[in-house]
Specification:
Blueprint: E1 8-19, E2 23-34, E3 38-42, H1 49-56, E4 64-69, E5 72-73, H2 78-84, E6 85-88, H3 100-110, H4 115-128, H5 144-157, E7 162-166, H6 174-189, E8 193-198, H7 201-207, E9 210-215, E10 218-223, H8 225-229, E11 236-241, E12 253-256, E13 259-264, H9 267-279, E14 285-288, H10 291-299
Helix pairs in contact: 3-4, 3-5, 4-5, 5-6
Amino acid sequence: MNQHNSEVAIVAKGLSKTYEKKVEALKGMSLEIRKGEVFTLLGPNGAGKTTFLRILCTQLMPTAGGATILGNDVLKNPEAVRETIAMVPQDAMAYANFTPWDYAYYFCLLRGMDKATSKKKAEEALKAMLMWEMKDKPCQSMSGGEKRRALIAATLASDAQVMMLDEPTSGLDAIGRRNVWSALRERAAQGKTIILTTHMMDEAEMVSDRLAIINKGELVTVGTTAEIKKKVPFKYRVIVPEDEIDKSQFSEITKIGDRLVIYLKTDEEAIRLVGNMLRKGVQAEAAPVTLEDAFVRLAGGELA
């Protein structure tokens, strides 16, 4: 992201949504998202990520609060908002007899591009998603991951100023996921604003300029990956077998099956612990604290 670009693309103020039976999906979310950044909403299933996107893309009315996209109010001027956005919903299905080319090309025409531009944008997007070889294949004969890539290609082809993708890589293999990440980073470099939701930590870490952790409809924290990791008072984690360690020596431990994740404040402590384990012939691995560690601590209270 162009770090000098502090122009704001999206402003959400106090967004709340209560469904019937008093289910609070969002509780007063306020966020600013800048132009030309990939911004990720990270949270467990049911955290409110999809509700937030649906309000932004004018599909859902909030119970309270409001939002603007590129200066247009999503409640007062939804038509103007829709002209600037494109969205891949989480549960979108590709129509059986449509091909990836149909999706990408007609989506561009629907957005008011001429035929030549539509063809160019469709081709670029399908190639970015590695779909060019199967551009004329009906979606009914494709795998779930291929259908997903066809829908993402259509959104990329749209050339919308703001692109929203709800769990775009669910169901994709590692190569497919990386292609999506790469395409999103390229669009951001061209000045597009990208919002995506995910519950995958590695995805949030790889693709985001900034991210927001959401839990139970509330904003837990916002920042770069590095800034969020710094909110955890530990720098390193060491994974060891449970029966090889005296737990009373350490203040912060997470149990995962028969293994323990021990959190330490300095690299000296981590090296010492790994050294002790190796001398006993026990395998131990040390690594810096991950985004997942920070997420669990910040969203789930104490590590448990």
